[in-house]
Amino acid sequence: MKVAVIGAGSWGTALAQCVARNGHEVCLWARKQSVADGINQQHANPRYLSEVTLSEGVTATTSYEEAFAGASAAVIVTPSATYRETAQIIAPFVGEDLPLVLCSKGVEAGTGMVGVEIFAQVLGNESRLAALSGPNHAEEVVLGIPAATVIASSLLETAQFFQSIFASASFRTYVSHDVLGVELCAAFKNVIAIATGVSYGYGFGDNTAAALQTRGLAEMSRLVTACGGEAMTCLGLAGTGDLIATCMSRHSRNRKLGEMLAQGKTLDDFTAETHMIAEGSVACETLSELADRIGVDLPICRAIRDLMRGDMSIEAIVAALADRPLKPEFY
């Protein structure tokens, strides 16, 4: 079948390659004509993962109409902060029943809505929507290095449909019905990865990183369950699995951002150096906003928000977290 992949960054490129390896025709939408030309002429993305030769089944375009024409499914890999805009732009080209899987990670500012909720509000028919998340660094997935992911949808058949599109010997796919839990975990782990990067960049060790990740997982589960998701989702691929990969991998853009912040650099420095988006820089704001609204305690998440804003120094954050009242581990 033909599959439209919307977004030609590193993750979009990796997923396009993953789908094409399974014998599907992929039309990859790129924002820049130079990227589309590179993919069509050299079978490589000149901007992201440029050392990888892409399957001949992958073509590229800057036209939404061309990308969606004749497609049986669509993979959305635009930044989560632009999800509402993306949904509005593609609306004229998306039929009422076209299955869509969302592969970026974040919560909308102001509304606290996750991706599937945004697309359902704009496009309707939530049952044809799914979310994909897991410990999946693009740099490894594109090479076929073994990995696993979870695909969540309110309709089991939709999750299974995308499961079959992506599944291969090197990309193990699981299904879930907990869409909200999967999407919140996906957004939250990026914030904890920034915290881990700050910790290492500041000179702390593995004990500190492990404590931040474990307590970050506790914050994640408090938020997920308070919003109506399932605690067990936090122990799965979208939660613990992605938390481990994003906090500890050399490929992690969010960890790298944290390390750069500890060196006195800024988000703008990170963007200029990597040409990538660290979605935790937005998620720390939107998740803190959501937590304030429903009364959930997220001290690490709020600390990263304050650091990103420039409201607190690393030294002040370390002191504030160390001085928190002692309490049971699980509350």
Description:
The mean pLDDT is 96. Helix 5 links the parallel strand 5 (100-102) and strand 6 (129-133). The longest helix is centred in the middle third of the chain and has 24 residues, at 179-202. Helix 8 packs parallel to helix 10, helix 8 packs parallel to helix 11 and helix 8 packs across helix 13 (280-294). The protein has an eight-stranded mixed sheet with strand order 3-2-1-4-5-6-7-8, with helices on both faces. The chain has 331 residues and is α/β, with parallel strands linked by helices. The chain is built from 15 helices and eight strands.
Q: Tell me, rounded to a whole number, the average pLDDT.
A: 96
Helix-strand makeup class = alpha/beta
Tell me how many strands there are: 8
User: Could you list the spans in which at least 5 consecutive residues all have pLDDT below 50?
Assistant: none
SSE arrangement, N to C: EHEHEHEHEHEHEHEHHHHHHHH
The biggest sheet amounts to:
8 strands, mixed
The order of strands across the largest sheet is 3-2-1-4-5-6-7-8
Q: What is the helix tally?
A: 15
Assign an overall shape: globular
Radius of gyration: 19 Å
How many angstroms does the end-to-end distance come to?
A: 49 Å
Strand content: 5-15%
Approximate helicity band: 40-55%
